[in-house]
Write a structure and sequence with these properties.
15 strands; six-stranded antiparallel beta sheet
Length: about 600
């Protein structure tokens, strides 16, 4: 009897379990409905005094497992879904899911136009629904699924129109589809006027940034042409790809460069970053030349460059969420490799430009960490995650171009000096006799043709033999270098300073020039020589002997003029008080040493006319 009763009890257990399960499910739905009802937010009032209204804690969101529901479905079962208040710092992984947002606009009189702005570029699809006065569902769409020119309001970010009604509140339903990268970012309602002001300011700053990159790119190409240096070519490639990458990430590319290519707009944000990283690594490898130190390190760099380029191709053909996470980690590893290469040449101490290269690379390496952390889901969308790479590249581009110019000048300095020996003096850097003779011929012909005066001033160091005798043979070179430096500072930009022979300098003063101005310059030359200098022994100064020739001269050619002035200089003896002689001046009196000592010592030539 007892066994039969137990069997009957066991027969009723499945029915009781099913009833209990249904009761629990119903209780859960009831609790969720109560929670959702408790999460309801008051309608948003679009006050004309407000420029923008952030939707944080003013709107509710729900993530749908799938992308099958319509706003009509949600409207009919809104209180039965787990809606939660929107938070700014939250991140949402939406692979195969849909992010739903709902908010209500309070009734308002007609006035300013308002817009819903999502400050995230590169969203796959953004759809906004509401019911109009006639009870019809109205849809607006933006995002990479559509060409930017087809958006309700074209721009860098999806921006949709939001208009209140006078007679009733309007509920809006927003759906976002975004694969591969977590979705986060501020959503706000903004009035038409502040939106226009904000966009104008934004476009100005971004235009200045991309203009800077274009200027640096042109500078790199000109540097490659001027110095025949492949470092500039590689740098130009790097700057071009980095600029395109930023255009894609900031939405500028989809807005201006490829507005009618939505398929490329979807791919560009994933394909270009690894290419930019590969180009940056290629540039650093070119300037650091790791093969000089370790063959294996050079191979590792090449493997990284090829791998990043291959990943970009994979992203273009078979993109996936996991693949882009691998790409982001690879970009992070390549940045570490770049830092290692710069540190290597700095530690070796063989490249004096290493500190400047490190200073140029550092901004991008540091600021690029923020968008990479955003891609990996470590940081929510914010100012530095959106504009970190832009700030870093704006600091990096001119610094690296300057570093390349300094390196190119250092490497080609010997070649330039060898070429300059044809026209310049090897010891002092002044023009040589051949250059002076050609310029002098031109000055004489010009003075004859135009009817004005030019002047040729010859200068010799009267006490050079004494300096050599008392201080050694090196004193001659030091004294002539010092003389060249002082003479160069006395003349103007259009004039020429030359060294024609040992202890024989010439200043060609282009006309028109007056005789009194020539006298003043000659006096200043003597006074400048009397100033002490650490280049010569203590207690000694340069005692200049000066001869002046006004042009045009009676001599038949430039060589005769030069020889005549040189003869006048050699005729002056060390014990002579009259150290300035003239040829072709209309008046003869010249300053004595006592008068010279009281003359002003300035570097600027006097007024000529």
């Amino acid at each position: 009897m007892y066994g039969g009763a137990d069997n009957r009890g066991m027969q009723h257990l499945p029915a009781m379990t099913s009833l209990l399960r249904q009761w629990l499910i119903g209780a859960c739905w009831l609790l969720l409905a109560c929670a959702a009802a408790g999460q309801e937010r008051a309608p948003i009032v679009l006050d004309s005094s407000d420029e923008s209204i952030v939707l944080t804690d003013r709107a509710l969101f729900w993530i749908e497992d799938g992308q099958a529901l319509t706003p009509q479905d949600l409207a009919s079962r809104r209180t039965g879904l787990p809606w939660w208040p929107l938070k700014d710092d939250s991140q949402y992984a939406l692979n195969g899911k849909a992010f739903w947002l709902t908010f209500e606009i309070a009734p308002a009189a007609p006035g300013n136009r308002w817009f819903l702005e999502l400050a995230v570029s590169g969203l796959d699809r953004v759809s906004l629904w509401h019911i109009d006065r006639l009870g019809r569902w109205q849809l607006q769409e933006a995002g990479d699924i559509r060409a930017v020119s087809d958006w309700p309001l074209p721009g860098r970010f999806p921006t949709l129109v939001v208009q209140p009604r006078e007679d009733a509140p309007v509920r809006y339903w927003l759906r976002i589809e975004h694969a591969r990268v977590t979705m986060s970012g501020a959503m706000r309602l903004i009035a038409e006027r502040p939106l226009a002001v904000h966009r104008d300011r934004e476009q100005f700053l971004l235009g200045a940034h991309f203009g800077l990159l274009l200027l640096v790119l042109m500078g790199a190409l000109m540097g490659a042409s001027l110095w025949n240096d492949r470092n500039f070519v590689v740098y130009a490639v790097y700057v071009a790809i980095l600029g395109l990458t930023q255009a894609a990430l900031l939405g500028v590319g989809a807005q201006y460069l490829w507005p009618d290519w939505p398929a490329w707009a979807r791919s560009a944000t994933f394909v270009l970053p690894p290419l930019a990283s590969a180009a940056g690594l290629w540039f650093v490898r070119t300037v650091t030349e790791p093969r000089r130190y370790y063959e294996a390190l050079d191979r590792l760099v090449w493997i990284a460059i090829v791998s990043l380029s291959g990943m970009a191709m994979v992203e273009a053909v078979i993109p996936s969420a996991a693949s882009y996470q691998i790409v982001s980690l690879s970009i992070l590893a390549s940045m570490g490799l770049i830092v290692g290469l710069i540190a290597l040449i700095w530690a070796r101490g063989e490249d004096p430009g290493a500190p400047l290269l490190a200073l140029g690379i550092a901004p991008v390496v540091v600021f690029a960490l923020f968008p990479i952390a955003r891609t990996l889901g470590l940081l929510p969308s914010g100012f530095l995650t959106r504009y970190g790479l832009t700030i870093g590249s704006a600091l990096e581009a001119p610094l690296l171009l300057y570093a390349l110019v300094i390196r190119a000048q250092r490497r080609t300095e010997g070649q330039w000096r060898a070429k300059a020996l044809v026209t310049t003096d090897a010891l002092t850097g002044l023009a040589n006799r051949q250059t002076l003779r050609l310029r002098l011929e031109s000055a004489i012909r010009r003075a004859e043709r135009q009817g004005h005066f030019a002047a040729l001033i010859g200068v010799g160091i009267g006490n050079l033999d004494t300096l050599v005798k008392e201080n050694g043979s090196d004193a001659s070179d030091r004294a002539q270098v010092l003389a060249a430096s002082r003479l160069r500072r006395i003349i103007g930009d259009v004039d020429l300073a030359a060294r024609a022979d040992t202890n024989l300098f010439f200043l060609l003063l282009e006309g028109p020039i007056r005789e009194d101005a020539v006298r003043e310059i000659a006096t200043r030359i003597v006074v400048k020589g009397l100033a002490p200098s650490p280049l010569i022994a203590s207690g000694h100064t340069l005692r200049f002997h000066v001869a002046v020739q006004m042009l045009p001269a009676a001599e038949p050619n430039a060589d005769a003029v030069l020889d005549g002035v040189a003869s006048e200089i050699r005729a002056i003896r060390i014990e002579d008080r009259k150290v300035i002689r003239h040829r072709g001046l209309s008046t003869a009196p010249w300053s004595t040493p006592a008068m010279m000592d009281s003359s002003p010592s300035v570097d600027t030539p006097p007024t000529r006319q």
